[in-house]
Structures are given as structure tokens and as C-alpha cells.
Amino acid sequence: MIDTLLVDDHQIIIDGLKTLLEGETDIGKILEAQNGESTLNILKDNKVDLILLDINLPDKSGFEICKIIKGDYPDIKIIALTMHDAAAYISKMIKSGVDGYILKNTGKEELLQAIRTVMEGERYFSKEVTDALIAGTPKSRKPRTSDFIQKLTRREKEVLQLIVEELTTDEIAGKLFISATTVISHRKSLLRKLNAKNTAGLVKAAFEFGLLE
């Protein structure tokens, strides 16, 4: 039996998934969570074989949650179930360790196929997802910053622009008429929001996600 955790911040999506899965002979217990924190708390106290994971959650991104779970519970299979069909989303989820990626417009038959495929140790990507990866560009639209990451403030965008232009902390402080300490604070916030480890990561994210004007 496949004990499953549904993670989505919209209850109507969770209810719909439960309706699709309940009654399937190989689906066991069905748990639900609406944010990252509750997801991790549930995993501490419950056996879970599979997670259907949305990317956009109110507290942590699906990318972050996927990395944490794969690090702490490597045997749990994770399928991203999302509306995003952009190559950037897909690639980032793959790098985070996801076992499958399907879209929310999928039907019951493909959903069950994806679940059973990953539970057998293989990866599953829907045709739309595969096509987007092959094309290397968004299938329908470019991802919006507000969809993909936490929204940056105007000042954070200004600091990011100057970081990309290779200005030092003191130079950024002088140009924006703020203290070096404030610049450092903004830089730490950018590193957290963009899930970057260093300045190179910030620059890469700035161009990858189209964060600069």
C-alpha cells in the first residue's frame, strides 16, 4: 500500500486529489498539508511513501521542501504536481531531487501511472513536461518572479542590480545612500530568497529568472 501525502495550499485541490485516489487498491493512507512546515511535521510522526507536492507554498518553496525531504527521507518518492510548465521550474525541481513532474490538468489515468511508475523506482514526466525540457524554454509563458520565488522589494532589486554590475558593498552603500550594514542585510535577504550560496549564485538567478529591468 502506498501511503501518500498531498501538499497544496488550496484545499479544493487536495479534496479533488483525495477523490481521485480513494478506492484505488494500492493507495493506503492519505494525509494532507497546506504548507512546508506542516509537511515536515507530518513526516516526523507518520510513514509516508509518496508525496504529491505543489511548487508554490506560502512558507517554503516546493524546491526547498523537496531538497529537505530528499536529504532527510531519501526513500520517499516525490512527484511535483503543479500548473507550471516552464523549463526553469522543471529543471530546478529535477535538481532538487524530484522523482516525477506532472501538471494539474492531468487526468486520473496519468496521475495513477505517474504514481506507480515512481514507486517502481523510475522517474515520470508528462509529455508536456518533456516537451518543455526539450525546447528549453517556457511552453506558454515565462515564469513570473512572484510565482517562482519570494517577491523582492524595490531596494533589494536595486542592490541586486548593483551586485550584477560588480560594485562592492561600500560602493553600493554610497550609490544608494545607505549604510554598508544595510547593504549586507539586503544581500543576506537576497541569498535566502533566491536560494543562492554566493554572489555568483545571485547573478545567475538574476538572469535566469529575469529579475532585473
Characterization of this structure:
With 213 residues, the protein is an alpha/beta fold. The chain has 2 domains: 2-135, Rossmann fold, CATH 3.40.50.2300; 149-208, Arc Repressor Mutant, subunit A (Orthogonal Bundle). 52% of the residues lie in helices and 14% in strands. The chain has 11 helices and 6 strands. It has helices at residues 11-21, 36-45, 62-72, 87-96, 108-119, 127-135, 145-148, 154-164, 169-176, 180-193, 199-208, and strands at 2-7, 27-33, 50-53, 77-82, 100-103, 124-125. The chain has a 6-stranded parallel beta sheet, with helices on both faces. α8 crosses α10 (180-193) and α8 crosses α11. The longest helix is centred in the C-terminal third of the chain and has 14 residues, at 180-193. It is elongated. The model is unreliable at 137-141 (pLDDT under 50).
Say what the CATH topology of the largest domain is: Rossmann fold
| Helical stretch tally | 11
Q: Give me the CATH architecture of the largest domain, please.
A: 3-Layer(aba) Sandwich
- Low-pLDDT ranges: 137-141
Largest sheet report: 6 strands, parallel
What portion of the residues fall into strands of 2 or more residues? 5-15%
With strands numbered from the N-terminus, the spatial order across the biggest sheet is 2-1-3-4-5-6
Question: Secondary structure elements and their pairing?
Answer:
Layout: E1 2-7, H1 11-21, E2 27-33, H2 36-45, E3 50-53, H3 62-72, E4 77-82, H4 87-96, E5 100-103, H5 108-119, E6 124-125, H6 127-135, H7 145-148, H8 154-164, H9 169-176, H10 180-193, H11 199-208
Parallel strand pairs: 1-2, 1-3, 3-4, 4-5, 5-6
Helix pairs in contact: 8-10, 8-11, 9-10
